[in-house]
Amino acid sequence: MERVELSVALRNNRSLKNKVESESGVVLSDCYQCGKCSAGCPAAFAMDYTPRQVIRLLQLGLGGEALKSHTPWLCASCQTCYSRCPREINLPRLMEAVRQEAKRRGIIPERKVDIFEKAFLDTVEKYGRAHEMGLMVQYNLRTLQPIKDALLAPPLLLKRKISPLPLKIKDIDSVKNIFAKVRNEGGSKQ
Ligand code: SF4
Ligand code: SF4
User: Boundaries of CATH 1.10.1060 in the chain?
Assistant: First the structure.
């Protein structure tokens, strides 16, 4: 009985599996579940599934569960897992592919992460670099907590750790072209 259910799940999962594999360049069957990635992941303590388990879900045809997981949204793309993996599996890219696919399907388990990424990319598209002050304001407004961390701003400004005004890079058009190209190819800002 269990075997039948598993084969149905595998069939349903095939297109998701193909998609995340082609978008990330990862071959899921390369992972032999040694767990070195999870053991070194600095964000694993906050995740519902460890990085190894996310791969296992996809291998087993339980991609729907992987799409609902908070793990791809909490991945900091620090590359620790990638550098430790004996099979050279690019887990950060896989996490990104799972996150993008979840978002395309309207599954956003970590709203604040999504809002933060959007705000960050907005400033990069506008100025060619991050503008911390603008990012902070955008994030606070979009998460409906306008005065969050407001007391931190004056000392940071006085010590010139953040700038009140954005600094635009010279060749901003090149950056805008990158964003336009990504959109033309079907991508979106996170
Ligand atoms: S370290 Fe690599 S092979 Fe081992 S479980 Fe993680 S992804 Fe799979
Ligand atoms: S890239 Fe993501 S999954 Fe890999 S170790 Fe860093 S936080 Fe963990």
Answer: 2-104
Q: Which CATH number fits domain 2-104: 3.40.1130, 1.10.357, 1.10.1060, 1.10.10?
A: 1.10.1060
pLDDT at 156 over 60: yes
The ligand 1 atom nearest the CA atom of 34: 4
> Which residue owns the Cα nearest ligand 2 atom 4?
81
CA distance 189 to 181: 12
Cβ atoms of residues 108 and 90 within 8 Å: no
pTM of the predicted structure, to 2 decimals: 0.84
Helix axes of 132-142 and 111-127: crossing angle, nearest 10 degrees: 140
Q: Which residues does a 6 A CB cutoff place in the pocket of ligand 1?
A: 31-37, 52, 55, 84-87, 89, 91
pLDDT class for 99, splitting at 50, 70, 90? very high
Kindly report, residue by residue over 60-76, the tens digit of the pLDDT.
Answer: 989 999 999 999 999 99
- Ligand 2 center from residue 55 Cα (angstroms): 13
Residue position matching structure tokens 């900091």: 76
